Amino acid sequence: MNLGRGPLSRRRFLAAAGLASALALTGCGGGEAKGADEKSVALVTPQKAGDGGPTDNLVSGLATLKAAGYSTRHVAAPDPSSHESTLRNLAQSGTPVIVVSFSDFTQVLKTVAPDFPKTKFVHIYSDPYKPEMPNVQTVSFDTQGPSYLAGVLAATVSKTGVIGFIGGTAIPSLYADYHAFEAGAKATRADIVLKSAFVGSFGDPVKGQQIAQTMFNNKVDVVLAYAGGSSVGVVKAADQAKTHVIYDNVESDQTAGSVIAIASQHYGGTMAKRVRGIDDGSWKPGGTVAGLADDGTFLDRAKKFRAEAGAPDLDSAFKKVDETKQKIVDGSIDVPFDTDPV
């Protein structure tokens, strides 16, 4: 799901006791220590591993780097007051590459990075910094690509000709996702009807379920759920209504009855590519975008979906999705970016 929809920025966690002391690394003064492993990377996240979502996905990227010969470390820093000391301690210890995630670290990184010009910082899920910083690379995700593909899929498999979009909160990035979803649907089926709603929260599955039930009671038979934790309720409603969902979270046995596809971001894989770019010389400071072309974002067929009698023909539908994806990547299709309110 689109983290302008940022799942981690929507949550706040209790401070982890003793974090600062656990990070008490060598070097107390300014500047970077010497002699550290040149193929070393530290990932700092505002949430502990085990979320079954973005943090775990990022940690899987560390495993990819470790297999490639990197020394890796994950530091969970749920207490915002510890963010600056965490980054400073890592940089002072000589960690050559430090990765941070989501908007929680923006202001702190702008403060810390100039003091450690030899350290490379990669900020996952961040808008470009203005002005650009010579040792900081930001990575944003083009979620309009998979949203457009979701529109193609929904319009192709819908039997009623009515599809829906349920977002977490009414914010510009989700407006852009809706308009891309609409464009993909209407390019596929001119007479398609779309309905949209916002839960008002990324963590209210009860309300998500209620909104979805209303849609399903009004002929909607496929929904794109971009509502984070609230999407769980959308899936429950679809299970009851025997309808289908394009989901923004991780598949599980509980999603097997109605979730036909996953639309999301490959956080860990994108992180690993950016870090390895430092060694192969392709790394550049400033803003970068991950999207369909580099597998930073995706719309994938759900692996756990249990096709029962009356289930949509996903083989044919995904053939059309794959053809459309190629046209987006080669520029034949221009996906709109429209943040006008829905």
From TrEMBL:
Keywords: Cell membrane, Lipoprotein, Membrane, Signal. It comes from the Bacteria. One of its GO terms (cellular component) is plasma membrane. InterPro entries: BMP_lipoprotein, Peripla_BP_I, PnrA-like, TAT_signal. It is found in: Cell membrane. SUPFAM superfamilies: Periplasmic binding protein-like I. It is a lipid-anchor. The keyword Membrane applies. Coiled coil: none annotated. Residues 80-276 form the ABC transporter substrate-binding protein PnrA-like domain. Signal peptide: none annotated. CDD domains: PBP1_BMP-like (cd19964). The keyword Membrane applies. Belongs to the BMP lipoprotein family. This is BMP family ABC transporter substrate-binding protein.
